[in-house]
Write a structure and sequence with these properties.
Radius of gyration: 18 Å
Number of helices: 5
Largest sheet: 2 strands, antiparallel
Shape: flat
Distance between the termini: 36 Å
Strand order of the largest sheet: 1-2
């Protein structure tokens, strides 16, 4: 994942509520699966395995975030377990069809969670995060971001 993409996800995470964090995990998983496909096409086994491993990390985080007091969590867990198995097969066999199967499932779940995130009006999970104002200043080639400086970011001395 490029540094720009990492910064974009970092910014999204600092502003996200619980449902939006799930959406971000799905987006990250899809990004890593796209990287796996690129590595597969380039016949780069090492990068393919790294991308699959990172995708599986996202899936594991999604599994850990399930709330089993709701019945649907069991069904979603089964989907995550299936995706995890497919990714393991892809990693061992260096077979892209298993990644493609996983992409289909994650995309459908992403669509559903994006819809849910529109209805979730809870506050961001991170408190005291720096506020970034974009577009207040410009240079010749790009829009510059500026950070607000807060004296209290949650740390006590």
């Amino acid at each position: 994942m490029s540094n720009e993409k990492k910064q974009e996800y970092t910014l999204k995470i600092t502003r996200a509520n619980k449902t939006q964090l799930i959406v971000i995990l799905y987006e990250m998983a899809l990004t890593y699966m796209a990287e796996a496909e690129e590595a597969y096409e380039a016949n780069n086994r090492k990068e393919f395995r790294q991308a699959i491993s990172r995708t599986r990390g996202c899936i594991n985080e999604l599994m850990a975030s399930l709330h089993f007091e709701y019945e649907i969590a069991i069904c979603i867990l089964q989907l995550y377990m299936f995706v995890n198995r497919e990714l393991a097969k892809a990693e061992v066999r260096m077979d892209i069809t298993h990644v493609d199967n996983s992409v289909k499932i994650i995309r459908e779940l992403l669509i559903a969670y994006r819809e849910l995130s529109l209805k979730d009006d809870s506050l961001p999970v991170m408190k005291n995060a720096q506020i970034i104002y974009s577009g207040l200043t410009y240079d010749r080639k790009d829009v510059l971001d500026s950070l607000s400086h807060s004296t209290n970011r949650g740390f006590r001395v």
